[in-house]
Each structure stands twice: as structure tokens, then as C-alpha cells.
Amino acid sequence: MVVSAAGGWSGVQLRNVQDAQKPRPVSAAKVPGPDAPKSNQLAFNRDGSLPAGATEDSAVRLGSVAEPERPYLAESFRAFGDAVDDAVMSGPHGRYMVTASGGIAAAWDLGDIPEIVADATGMACRSASGGFDRDDWKKQIPDIPFRQTCPKG
Fold it and tell me: Which of 33, 63, 93, 115 has the highest Cβ tally under 10 A?
């Protein structure tokens, strides 16, 4: 799998490159809006599931590609007053990031974001005590047919 932020495009594109002669698009996550910023640089955590895009609008955007078919924006924050030129992720689980703009560097502790992104469904299910059972579902959302939202176990 390859993640890229093509020049002049505001988001990431995922491609399956098992056949290097015919890379196949898998999915894309675009920053919404007509004036969406362009990415200057991509950085990745150790397992590649959390690309960080340094953008021209002074923000850093962290995207989850842990499930390649369903990428999403995990976090966005302003890093500087000007365009972010560079981003580097390091440390255990890619928890730390250094960004740079106009010769100034900043270090960031991303907290639990890398772990949450690695297993977003599992984290949500643990936070929700396993999700609704049939009875809770019927009480809370009776007009929608029941479906198991969290893995049993």
C-alpha cells in the first residue's frame, strides 16, 4: 500500500502496489472545502497507519489509514502562523512529532492518537462497554433494525 499527497491536491490517496506496473487506487481522503490547503510534506508513524500532512495553511492533519478502504481525518491542529514546511514522527508508536516552519521547530506529544487510530473500532467499543445489546437498541433506536456494532468477546 502506498499513501501519497499528490502536488496540488488537498488530502491523501491510497494505492495498492502489489503489481508495481499497475498501481490500483484503493481510496482517498480529501480535506473538504473549496479552499482546502495543499500538503507540503507527509510523515508517517512506525506502522504507517497515521500519516501527518504538513500543510500550507499552518496546520498539521493526522489521517488514519489503518483501514485502507476507509481513511479518515483523525486530528487537525494549527502548528504555526505560516505554512508548515516539514513534519517528522518518531518515538514508540509514533507518539511524538516534530514540525518546522520558517526555521522554527516545535515538538508535539500526540498522546493516545496513534493507539486510537490503530484500533478505532476497538477503542470505541471498549469506551461504550461493548455497544448496545438487542434490548438497549430497541429502547434507544427502535426504528432501525438491530445490528451488532461491536465484536463479541
Answer: 63
The alpha carbon of 151 is separated from its chain's Cα centroid by a whole number of angstroms, namely: 22
Q: What SS3 class is residue 6?
A: coil
**144 CB neighbour count, 10 Å cutoff:** 9
Angstrom distance (rounded) from CA 114 to CA 118: 6
- Cell numbers that stand for 66 in this block: 489503518
CB of 89 closer than 8 Å to CB of 45: yes
Q: What is the CA radius of gyration of the chain?
A: 18
Between CA 5 and CA 138 the distance in angstroms is 44
pLDDT grade, residue 143 (50/70/90)? very high
Cβ within 8 Å of residue 30, ≥6 positions away: 9, 10, 11, 36
